[in-house]
Amino acid sequence: MSTNPEPTTAPRRRIRRVAVIATALALVGGGAAYAFWTTTGSGTGTAATGSPAAITVVQTGTLTAMYPGDTAQTLSGNFNNPNGGPIHVNTVTVSIASVTKAPGAVAGTCDATDYTLTGAAMTVNADVPAGNAQGSWSGATIKFNNKATSQDQCKGAAVNLAYTVS
Description:
By secondary structure, the chain is an alpha+beta fold. Helix content is 15%, strand content 37%. It has one helix spanning 9-33, and strands spanning 56-59, 73-81, 87-100, 115-118, 121-128, 131-144, 158-165. The strands form 2 sheets. Strands 1-2-6-4 form a 4-stranded antiparallel beta sheet, with no helix packed on it. It has a 3-stranded antiparallel beta sheet with strand order 5-3-7, with no helix packed on it.
């Protein structure tokens, strides 16, 4: 009989079993860390754009009283933009909306034909910031025509101008 007994196969099996279980758990646990699902799908959504409020053209240049044969006077001004951000303005166009005769003016016609607008379409081509008195425009001129007939009916008349923006 020997003094060193040989190990039995039972403990070896137990060590091997523990090693196999530990390896299996590591593989399963590691695999779960890298697992994910793939899928496809679709969806819908909406977005809205607002409609900007109209900007106002403000004539700031002061014109002196016009008379027959007077020289042309330049129209100029800026904008009031009530929107929350800038609005792009390509052109400002001026026209004679009407002529209002002065109270007590002599009989006869005083209308847009008594005045000449030149350069009525003024290029701005700029973004007008939000707020009042923003940006600028100029270039059109207005003058009182010198007709061959009396124009007394236009004394003190008010020329009402209309401005459009595009």
